[in-house]
């Protein structure tokens, strides 16, 4: 009975971690074709409220000009993409052995929580509109909850494993 519960928990944990890894990799990969992605977003938001539309057009203008005149600046977002992919690789540890590597899940939750002060402190310094800071904060919030759920499941799995050893 305990063995079946442990297998079920391990499967649920692996699904959560796999989804998290996939989303981290995808969010990293999206940092490469920014100009193309932004042109699609601008096209799709023609009827967006003025503040949002104006902000997207300003970003597009800056990105196009920067890429044209200073293409080496995109190297920074290349490294951002790389960092997302590397962080995703770290989550392979808890995918393979959740109990031994639950610290990685805790690291992920702390990282998600750290998104909020970064966005809310650096956003105003960099003249990022508040609504955009909230969008950035949402990534930390959205990432935190599945990791927290996963962490709780790992704690239950850990108790089952400890109980079965006694």
Describe this structure in words.
- With 166 residues, the chain is mainly alpha-helical.
- It has one domain.
- Helices cover 84% and strands 0% of the residues.
- It has helices at residues 2-29, 34-44, 50-69, 75-90, 92-96, 102-125, 130-165.
- The chain is elongated.
What is this structure's SSE topology?
Blueprint: H1 2-29, H2 34-44, H3 50-69, H4 75-90, H5 92-96, H6 102-125, H7 130-165
Compact description:
The chain is an all-alpha fold and 166 residues long. It is 84% helix and 0% strand. It has one domain.
User: Which outline best applies?
Assistant: elongated
Describe the sheet with the most strands: none
**Overall pLDDT confidence:** 95
Low-pLDDT runs: none
Straight-line distance between termini: 15 Å
What class, by secondary structure content? mainly alpha
Task: Classify the oligomer.
Answer: single chain
Pattern of helices and strands: HHHHHHH
Percentage of residues in DSSP E strands: under 5%
Q: How many discrete domains?
A: 1
Q: Counting H and I runs of at least 4 residues, what is the number of helices?
A: 7
Q: How many E strands?
A: 0
Helical residue percent band: over 70%
Report Rg: 20 Å
Summary keywords:
166 residues; 7 helices; 84% helix; 0% strand; mainly alpha
């Amino acid at each position: 009975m305990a063995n079946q519960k442990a297998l079920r928990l391990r499967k649920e944990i692996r699904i959560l971690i796999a989804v998290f890894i996939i989303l981290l990799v995808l969010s990293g990969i999206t940092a490469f074709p920014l100009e193309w992605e932004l042109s699609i977003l601008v096209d799709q938001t023609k009827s967006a409220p003025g503040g949002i539309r104006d902000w997207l057009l300003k970003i597009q203008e800056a990105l196009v000009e920067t890429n044209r005149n200073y293409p080496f600046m995109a190297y920074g977002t290349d490294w951002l993409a790389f960092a997302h992919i590397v962080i995703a690789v770290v989550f392979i540890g808890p995918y393979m052995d959740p109990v031994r590597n639950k610290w990685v899940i805790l690291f992920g939750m702390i990282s998600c929580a750290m998104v909020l002060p970064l966005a809310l402190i650096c956003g105003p310094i960099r003249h990022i509109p508040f609504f955009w800071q909230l969008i950035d904060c949402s990534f930390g919030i959205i990432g935190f909850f599945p990791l927290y759920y996963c962490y709780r499941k790992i704690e239950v799995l850990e108790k089952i494993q400890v109980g079965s050893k006694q």
